[in-house]
Design a protein that fits this description.
It comes from Scardovia wiggsiae F0424. Belongs to the ABC transporter superfamily. GO terms for molecular function: ATP binding; ATP hydrolysis activity. Its main location: membrane. The protein has 314 residues and is of the alpha/beta class. It folds into two domains: 200 residues, P-loop containing nucleotide triphosphate hydrolases (Rossmann fold), CATH 3.40.50.300; 60 residues, no CATH class. It contains ten helices and 13 strands. Strands 5-6-7-3-8-9 form a six-stranded mixed sheet, with helices on both faces. It has a four-stranded antiparallel sheet with strand order 11-12-10-13. The chain has a three-stranded antiparallel sheet with strand order 2-1-4, covered by helices on one side. Strand 11 and strand 12 form a beta hairpin. The longest helix has 16 residues. It is elongated and about 80 Å long. The two termini are 40 Å apart.
């Protein structure tokens, strides 16, 4: 996806970073347009947080070029363009929800009146109206997570980095945060978003970049990645329990199984039923398992469990 560099909110070329002899980033190239949400995926320790702190200007790369809104993020002036919510919650416990937000607004150079106005916009968007005057230290974990995220967005940043903003949040908090992130992008903010809940990227209609072994192993839209890296799985059962010897199919747990292109599993089924070895009247069940972002991710990075998988097991 080639674009005019002047239209890119984020532009990384050949970014490398090592800690001692350990190479964390091995030449990362990345582009994000205004209004685009980029889901950054990778195993724990893959370098996602390191990459984000480099893009925020808080860590220098060993080599490579980084431009945020056309500027070098190591310059102090870049802060007005960036909103950053790290994974660890950081709120002022002895200030109210409203004061947490307005104090950040004032630090960002927003007038007192506009800080109050913006604070109440965020409070409403995140469903914290009943906690407006409550000290942040007395909030629930999910409420603190919402406030923490809202503080990063007080100044209408042109680029927002949200590092696992829903980790530990309850369902209401997650939905509120996701809705705000989508609204933020619709207003033109470029968002880099990390999460172990892969379904969140689908809800956000995010583009995806998968970081593996220090490089971007795959990137694109979710449908594009599914078509390139994952197949549909087809399972056919027979009433008699006796499985025919069909070309291109294998026996698995009492049924025939085959993989086929995600967009056309019906073609494989038609070939099976046309096979002279198969009595189509004996077919008792046909089940198609559609590929997902999770299957793409696991195909690329290996068998690390995602948060979605862990939820299914509980």
């Amino acid at each position: 996806m080639d674009t005019d560099p002047s239209d890119e909110a984020i532009n990384l070329t050949g970014v490398q970073k090592s800690y001692g002899s350990t190479k964390v980033l091995r030449g990362v190239d990345l582009k994000v347009r205004p209004g685009q949400i980029l889901g950054l995926l990778g195993k724990n320790g893959a370098g996602k947080s390191t990459l984000i702190t480099i893009m925020c200007g808080m860590l220098c790369p060993d080599s490579g070029q980084i431009r945020i809104c056309g500027k070098d993020p190591s310059r102090r002036s870049i802060g007005r363009y960036i909103g950053y919510a790290p994974q660890d919650i950081a709120v002022y416990p002895h200030l109210s929800v409203e004061q947490n937000l307005t104090s950040i607004g004032r630090i960002q150079g927003i007038s007192a009146a506009k800080s109050v106005q913006r604070a109440h916009e965020i409070i409403e968007a995140l469903g914290l109206e009943n906690q407006t005057k409550q000290n942040a230290g007395n909030l629930s974990g999910g409420q603190k997570r919402r406030l923490h995220t809202g503080m990063a967005l007080m100044h209408h940043p042109r680029v927002a980095f949200l590092d696992e903003p829903t980790v530990g949040a309850d369902v209401e908090a997650r939905n509120r945060i996701l809705h705000m992130v989508r609204s933020l992008a619709d207003e033109g903010t470029a968002v880099v978003y990390t999460s172990h809940y892969l379904t969140e990227f689908e809800k956000l209609n995010a583009a995806i970049a998968i970081l593996n072994e220090g490089t971007i192993a795959a990137s694109g839209t979710i449908p594009d990645l599914i078509s390139r890296y994952s197949d549909s799985s087809i399972h056919v059962s027979f009433a008699s329990g006796t499985l025919p010897d069909a070309s291109g199919w294998r026996e698995e747990e009492g049924h025939l199984t085959a993989e086929g292109p995600a967009e056309d599993p019906g073609r494989a089924i038609a070939r099976l039923l046309a096979d002279p070895q198969v009595d189509d009247s004996a077919v008792s069940d046909i089940r198609i398992v559609r590929p997902s972002l999770e299957s793409v991710y696991l195909n690329i990075v290996g068998t690390e469990k995602t948060a979605d998988e862990e939820i299914k097991e509980k």
